[in-house]
Amino acid sequence: MSIFTPTNQIRLTNVAVVRMKKGGKRFEIACYKNKVMSWRSGAEKDLDEVLQTHTVFTNVSKGQVAKKDDLSKSFGTDDLTEICKQILAKGELQVSDKERQSQLEQMFRDIATIVAEKCVNPETKRPYTVSLIERAMKDIHYSVKASKSTKQQALEVIRQLKESMQIQRAHMRLRFIVPAKEGKRLKEKLKPLMKVVESEDFDDQLEMVCLIDPGCFREIDELIRCETKGKGSLEVLSLKDVEEGDEKLE
Predict the structure, then answer these.
(1) What pLDDT is recorded for position 250?
(2) Which of 49, 83, 179, 211 counts the most CB atoms within 10 A of its CB?
(3) How far is the C-alpha of 86 from the C-alpha of 96, rounded, in Å?
(4) Residue 3's pLDDT is what?
């Protein structure tokens, strides 16, 4: 969609319109596609990355700008940035059916990815793959809600999947041993992947016990194997339950 606004001669492209009815009038703002949901989820904090222009319209596609009096009466202020924030928070994102379907499919994949990263099969003590979680979500006919965050929905999916499969939100407790020569370098690479370091012993070799999110297991396993050329060892000691409320999904 390409939009021409006669007021400031800015040619707006790649536009997502957010619409809000207030005081019996229609108000619209022009945003960048994909940025509205990022703003609402808190991932995007810079308003200028979301808004194409701090102008409030009655009709974005026709470039019709809202009158100052109408804005003051409806919003109780004529501060355009403040009004844009209100519309952004409470307005309705206008998307085509095709775009909406694409957005829901992406959210479905994102939810499955979060579940796979945070959960394990308690019998094998190993993580599930994203594709297996996607299949399981289809089996229970999980319906994605565009208005709820993927993190909220991931928690809901975990609850529902527990009724039909062995799945548990948990941290994995690992012990790995690597030769001293690679120890320091490898520790720096592994540090961002660990949640908690429970013990560390560095003598003629590096031995660590740590808690990780299940989604990091394959990466850690691969790092230790490649960096030590098979001389390091990795062992899953146990699972530590993550109770509801113990940890927010990050």
Answers:
(1) 53
(2) 83
(3) 23
(4) 52
pLDDT classification of 96: cutoffs 50, 70, 90? confident
Q: What is the rounded distance in angstroms from the CA atom of residue 211 to the CA atom of residue 193? A: 9
Rounded CA Rg of the chain: 25
* Structure confidence by residue, pLDDT tens digits, 42-64: 788 899 999 999 999 999 888 89
The secondary structure of residue 229, as a DSSP letter, is: T
Burial class (CB in 10 A: 0-12, 13-18, 19+), 89: exposed
Query: Which of these, 181, 105, 215, lies nearest to 150 by C-alpha position?
Result: 105
Could you identify the residue written with the tokens 């979680």?
A: 133
Q: Closest Cα partner for 93 from 31, 149, 45?
A: 31
**pTM above 0.70?**
no
Rounded Cα gap, residues 134 and 138, in angstroms: 6
From residue 54, alpha-carbon distances to 1, 8, 39, 45, 46 in Å are 19, 12, 15, 15, 13
Q: pLDDT-based confidence at 239, cuts 50/70/90?
A: confident
Q: Are 239 and 168 in contact (CB under 8 A)?
A: yes
Q: Which two tokens stand for residue 171?
A: 């941290």
| The pLDDT value given to residue 247 | 47
Structure tokens at 207: 């031995």
Q: How far is Cα 31 from Cα 93, in angstroms, rounded to an integer?
A: 10
Round to whole Å and give the CA distance between 107 and 83: 28
d(CA 179, CA 207): 9
